[in-house]
Amino acid sequence: MTLATADKVASSFERAGIDDRSFVVLYSRRSISWATRFWWMLRWIGFDQAAVLDGGFERWQADGRPISTLPCTYPPGKLSVNIRPGLFVGKDDVLAAIGDNRSCTINALGPDVFSGENPRYGRPGRVPGSINVPKVSLVDPKSMKFKPVDEINKLFSAAGATQADRYLTYCGGGIFATVIAYWLYQLGHDNIAVYDNSMSEWATDPDLPMETG
Prior knowledge:
Elements: H1 6-15, E1 24-26, H2 33-44, E2 50-52, H3 56-62, E3 88-89, H4 91-97, E4 103-107, H5 111-115, E5 131-132, H6 149-159, E6 166-170, H7 176-186, E7 192-195, H8 198-202
Parallel strand pairs: 1-2, 3-7, 4-5, 4-6, 6-7
Helix pairs in contact: 2-7
């Protein structure tokens, strides 16, 4: 899997100074998906005191906020690990969800990859029955910030992601998919999973079904 073991993940965050009392603000450059990936990983190990900086470093800099090039270190922290095993899933869970009307599988990649026009990951296409909410559609390309909540809600509704009991999100390697998971959570859904290996695994396994068009 793309994901390291829980102990390794927790140790990495602890080395950055995070402990059970911390409040963590996550940001990234060029794509908000790196911040949401860390946010989802923290939730996976049972840590909930984290937020994503809307707009990332680019928006922070564009707004004229202070920046520094000096190193910043914190004393090591100690995290209590309480794994939520359902937050990351593998191909068997995704395969089992095909045809299950209680589940909604969402592809976070661009429409060209979703349709099969762009065979970026080998075999063209998508997980059968999945719908498309491109990660890029949730972000304003000028401000780099997320679009307003009501617009994002409409995008999910238009794609058909509203009534499921369970949501599974995927992309190329479990990164963009966390943006979709992040917003499903913000919109009030709580049974959400990220397919960690996503199309990097699915498209390269000839035994797994693909759908195009």
